[in-house]
Amino acid sequence: MRLLLVEDEASAMRRLVRLVGEHFGGRARTRFSTLHAIEEEILAADVVIGAVLIPGAAAPRLVSRAQLSRMKRGAVLVDVAIDQGGCFETSHPTTHADPTFEVDGVIHYCVANMPGAVPLTSSYALNNATLPFGLALAVGGLEAIRKDPHLAAGLNIHRGQITNAQVAESLRQPYKPAQTALAA
Predict the structure, then answer these.
(1) Which residues lie below 8 Å from residue 116, measured CB to CB, with a gap of 6+?
(2) How far is it, in rounded angstroms, from Cα 21 to Cα 5?
(3) Could you give the CA distance from residue 80 to residue 52 in angstroms, rounded to a whole number?
(4) CA neighbor of 41 nearest in space, from 61, 67, 15
(5) Which of 28, 103, 107, 117 has a beta carbon 3.0–4.6 Å from 24's, enabling a disulfide?
C-alpha cells in the first residue's frame, strides 16, 4: 500500500510519518509534502490524505484536477481540510450519510466534521485539549490573554478589531496585532 499524507505542519508531519510507519510496519511509503513529492507520489498512491490547515484561512489546493486525472483508478482521496474549503481541486463537502463521490475513477471522502463520526470520543478529546485554556480564561480574563502568548494567538477579534492576520486577510479588513489591541 502507498499512502501520501499532505500536511503543512512539519512537527505534526514528522510525528505522523513515524506513527504511520510503525502502524504499517514499513509497508506504507511516507514522504514530506513538497510540491515535487506530491506530484511524484500521487501517481502511485493508493490513498492520499490531505490534512492541511492554515488557521483562519482557506486550505491551499495541493492536488489539481489535471494531477488527479493521472492517478490510479480506485485510489482514494481523504480531504481532512474540507472544513477549510479542501486541499484537492475536485473536493466538495459530503456528509456521513453520503460520504463519497468519484471523479475520474478516484474515490473522494470529504466529510465535513469528520470527528462527528465518533462524537463521544471526539468530545472527550476536544474537552481535554481545551479545558486548561477555558479555565485560564475564566480565572484570568483579559489579563490571561495578555500574559499567555498561546491564548493571545487564539484571539480573533477584540473590541471590533480583527487580531488574527489570516482572518483579516480573508475578510479584506484591517488587522491589528492582539497585543496592540489588548493594550488599547
Answers:
(1) 96, 122
(2) 12
(3) 7
(4) 67
(5) 28
For the record, the C-alpha cell of 24 comes out as 504499517
Q: Which three cell numbers stand for residue 145?
A: 490573554
**Cα separations in angstroms, 166 against 75, 88, 174:** 33, 20, 11
Model confidence pLDDT, tens digit, residues 57-74: 788 899 999 999 999 999
> Which DSSP string corresponds to the chain?
-BEEEEES-HHHHHHHHHHHHHHHTT-SB-----HHHHHHHTTT-SEEEEE---TTSPPP--B-HHHHTTSPTT-EEEEGGGGGT-SBTT---B-SSS-EEEETTEEEE-BTTGGGGSHHHHHHHHHHHHHHHHHHHHHHHHHHHHH-HHHHHT--EETTEE--HHHHHHHT--B--HHHHHH-
